[in-house]
Amino acid sequence: MSSLPVRDTYKGKHILLIGGSGFLGKVWMSMLFHTCPEVGKVTVLLRRKGLRGAKRRLEKMINESYAFEPWHKSHGEGLTDFLAGRLEAVDGDLGLEDMGLDAATKAQLQGEVDLVVNSAGLVDFDPDPRAALESNVEGPMRLLDFVRGCKKAKLLHVSTCYVAGNRQGAIPEEIDVNVSPSGTPMDVRKEWEDARALYDQMAVDFDTPENHDLVNDEVESRIERDGLDASNEALVRNLTQKVYTRRLEKVLREVGMERAQRWGFPNTYTWSKFLCEGLMAKEADDVEWSLLRPSIVESAFAYPRPGWVEGFKTSGPLIYLLGTWFRQLPARANLPFDVIPVDMVCQGLFVAGAALLQGVHHPVYQTATSQRNRLTIGRSCELTALGHRKHLRTDGAGPLERLVLSRWDSQIEDTEPVLSVPNIRKAVLGFGKLLNKVPEGLPGGLTKQARNLAKLTKTADKQLKGVERLIELFKPFTTQNWQEYAASRLNEHEVMEEAFQFEPERIDWLTYWTDIHMPGLRQWSFPAMEGRSVERMRPANKASIREMVVNEKAAKEGVA
Ligand SMILES: NC(=O)c1ccc[n+]([C@@H]2O[C@H](COP(=O)([O-])OP(=O)(O)OC[C@H]3O[C@@H](n4cnc5c(N)ncnc54)[C@H](OP(=O)(O)O)[C@@H]3O)[C@@H](O)[C@H]2O)c1
């Protein structure tokens, strides 16, 4: 085993990062400049969002997301100068021809870039399958073509452990090219082309007078229900388009999901990621690449700060539910629940990227915990109950939460029933009705508390509706698949620096879950779930992309 000096390997290198606005991409970009300050340059390819182009998106991100807090802490008002000439954003989109890059930018990048890191993807489990193909298969294929045209670039692509589909048992760090998880032979290119042709044809076939009638009926009833202005042509046109698209996508989602499940995948997402891996393995031996497969990526262990998380990630809805008045979670207690903190995935990315740059890489690396430091569904539920108790006893809203909810333990029912959110919703609504029947005049304002809580159950029901689909989609993980992911390849490199050692054994689940992860979710995720705004970072000095460009230009011209 030869030693791998990670920091030195990144020194002076030009990295192209795709997916830098995502949860994982942000943390990796932030860690890169923090741990490898001598990296040459990072170009972040970002899609335009509304009127906001890549530069403005990047600037907003680094000034508002806590992922970049360590940059502000280390460099303060010198951050713009530190980043000048080393960080840039380009407009692009993996969904477009030539990744949406103009010819000059493309040529420049192809001449300069050493390593492309692709953390972009559509992570929705149940998407329109055309969108899944576009982001998770066709986008990466365009990226491969881009890398083929590069002078020296290599490609590090982020996949997922769950390409294993519904296979049971130990999952090795290997790629299955010709066999799907159901054991049926699969020609990945044919599957991609057949699926793409089918879904495009379905979209064409959907355009029938019968469907138009259904759409118009729905539009009319919504206009009546919501008291909208039927004479407003633009409004009616927009609403019609929306209803049409939603109905078409619903049909496609169902067909996409059935197709994925026939091949032995839990959902369309994992099917599309599997196709991408297979296509890379079969058709990209002219490119030097490596895959990194995380399991379920959750809040930070330590970087950018313990517990930082973005959006509503996997364990969030379950944890949220177990903190409400619903406390029964039917699931199989002994199933491994493979969760990995985002910064540990980043450590894996650093090592895999360095190995790739040095030409000593493996084709696949997994960053997972189930083999080396297993958490089970049952244990995660116990820890969740403990975390909620701790929180509610001191910070519960009102006496009902502090006195009752904090003592009401969650239970896991190890009876293999299906995790049924419709039942949870029934329970929540039933509980709301009960609360409305609480007699008047209870001491300590309890009647008022109960009435308020009844109102909250209505809100909770609305939220649960949204969570319902998500949790149903998680059934394979919470009730069916016993999987243990190998994660030893990263440690086959003799990594020189402590900062990049992949050591999932360091996670003490009790501490991580109750003192890091759950407080993180409470701060960064639950507000989003409840429709409240999530706290944004407000650094004393903002970094300016415009000034970075000016400073870089000046430095090149020898003025600075
Ligand atoms: N999160 C997990 O638990 C998990 C687990 C295993 C593997 N993964 C994999 O890890 C990667 C990152 O996941 P994440 O959690 O960071 O996802 P995320 O937060 O949803 O971010 C997805 C990123 O992909 C970008 N993207 C999507 N389509 C694109 C396109 N056509 N062109 C350019 N950029 C595009 C998004 O850009 P916009 O900001 O423009 O939308 C965003 O930056 C994905 O490949 C995912 O499959 C994630």
Provide a descriptive summary of the structure in words.
The protein has 560 residues and is an alpha/beta fold. It has a domain at 187-262. The protein is built from 20 helices and 15 strands. The chain has helices at 6-10, 23-35, 54-64, 69-75, 79-83, 103-112, 129-148, 188-205, 209-226, 233-262, 268-283, 315-322, 342-358, 377-395, 398-404, 421-436, 446-473, 475-480, 509-529, 545-556; strands at residues 3-4, 14-18, 41-46, 87-91, 115-118, 154-158, 169-171, 289-294, 296-298, 328-330, 339-341, 364-367, 411-413, 483-485, 494-495. It has a seven-stranded parallel β-sheet with strand order 4-3-2-5-6-8-12, sandwiched between helices. Strand 5, helix 7 (129-148) and strand 6 (154-158) form a beta-alpha-beta unit. The chain is globular, with a radius of gyration of 25 Å.
Q: Radius of gyration, Cα only, in angstroms?
A: 25 Å
Instruction: Describe the global form.
Output: globular
Please bin the fraction of helical residues.
Answer: 40-55%
Proportion of residues in extended strands: 5-15%
How far from one another are the termini? 45 Å
Mean pLDDT rating: 87
Could you give the order of strands across the largest sheet? 4-3-2-5-6-8-12
User: Which structural class fits the helix and strand makeup?
Assistant: alpha/beta
Q: What are the distinct ligands in this entry? A: NADP nicotinamide-adenine-dinucleotide phosphate
The description of the largest β-sheet is:
7 strands, parallel
Number-wise, the strands total 15
Count, helices = 20
- The low-pLDDT segments are 415-419
Oligomer: single chain
